[in-house]
Amino acid sequence: MGFDYCFAPNIIGRGGGIALFWRKTTKCSIVNYSCNHTSVRIGEDNLDPWILTGFYGYPEGGRRRDSWNFIRSLTRNINLPWCIFGDFNDIVHAQEKKGRAIRPNWLIRGFRQAIQEVGLIDIHMEGYSYTWFKSLGTPRVVEDTALANEAWMHSFPHVRLTNRVAPSSDHFQSYSTKHQW
């Protein structure tokens, strides 16, 4: 795939997982990880260091609060600019989902409250915002997201996310149009 390094924690069961790939030109070191996240410290020559976290929220409906509390716990150990992205299995606004079952308001409010408590801001996604299809060709789509704290947004004021087609997956790939991570 054109990358020099990869880190992928072991997964438990049949669930997905998080894999992080990077090139040797990026100074990247693992901070901590679990089967639901990988946090790395990125310290490039021309930028102050910052933290990037790939996140996979618990997919089970009864564990949403566990995901929110997990995000809260991650925040306690971060004192640098921080960006967290991935599949939260939650949405901030009802418009981020189209299709069958409507997301209950208490889930949307709970997730929104959790990210607001820890000072995370939704990074605007340009273009087609839906990143996941329940079944390709159906109207059942969901938007994954990227969030950042104010210090990260200040460090990268011109960052914009767009989607790239990933033809062999039911997810698109979000990436930065202004900065390569």
How does this model look, in words?
The protein has a single domain (5-176), classed as Deoxyribonuclease I, Chain A, CATH 3.60.10. It is 17% helix and 30% strand. The protein has three helices and 13 strands. Strands 3-4-5-6-11-8 form a six-stranded mixed beta sheet. Strands 7-10-9 form a three-stranded antiparallel beta sheet, with no helix packed on it. Strand 5, helix 1 (64-75) and strand 6 form a beta-alpha-beta unit. The longest helix has 13 residues, at 105-117. The chain is globular. The protein starts with a strand and ends in a 5-residue tail after the last strand.
Quick description:
By secondary structure, the chain is α+β, with helices and mostly antiparallel strands.
Structural descriptors:
181 residues; three-stranded antiparallel β-sheet; 13 strands; globular; 30% strand; six-stranded mixed β-sheet; 17% helix; alpha+beta
Cα separation of the termini: 15 Å
What is the CATH class name?
Alpha Beta
Q: How many strand elements?
A: 13
- Specify the biggest β-sheet: 6 strands, mixed
Named at the architecture level, the CATH assignment is 4-Layer Sandwich
Q: Can you give the helix content as a percent range? A: 10-25%
Note poorly predicted spans: 130-143, 168-181
Tally of individual domains? 1
Topology:
Layout: E1 5-7, E2 20-22, E3 28-34, E4 37-42, E5 50-56, H1 64-75, E6 82-87, E7 97-98, H2 105-117, E8 120-122, E9 132-133, E10 141-142, E11 145-149, H3 150-155, E12 161-164, E13 173-176
Parallel strand pairs: 5-6
Antiparallel strand pairs: 1-2, 3-4, 4-5, 6-11, 7-10, 8-11, 9-10, 12-13
